[in-house]
Amino acid sequence: VAWLKRHTPEAAEQHVGCDDPVLRAEGGFLSYFVLCQELIDQPTQHKFLGEMRAVYWKNYPLAFRFFLATCFQLPRGQHQVRLDLVNVATRQSANVANATISATADCRQVPVQGELIARIPEPGLYFFSLYVNDRLLSCVPIPFETGCDPFSYTLTDDAAKEVAGGQLLILSKRSQQQIG
User: Fold this and answer.
1) pTM score > 0.90 for this model?
2) Which of 25, 52, 109, 160 is the most buried (most CB within 10 A)?
């Protein structure tokens, strides 16, 4: 940590002057794109808790609250970021969020994060599609289900009863279930 404190101003100065022709030609790169239930952002560590893999709800539409955590490496200047929700079957798309971000140097990461609410109109498989300057960079697929006719995982009887009773159920990445 002491080394970091001593060298951070020097490294920051070098990064400001960085000019990356590959980055400029490509238009930028995505470092990470995470949808989660909780985001803990600390200076030297990011924690993404409850990365979603499937969502179960009794009645749709659903006002779905989540955290978006992304990070880009972009050419110096202003950039438009957009997150859309796309129904895979119908290709209907709805905008979830828009932001203008500023990259101060080619060699600096630009994080974009925050709490959002997406309106999920009906059960189905959806893409959360991330764009920068109208260029699609990545999609995260998330099935939104009722517990019947699954698009992804079949629920246990107890979990299906909870959803039928009005409980929101979110299966997270690395979820575990006891068997037997």
Assistant:
1) no
2) 52
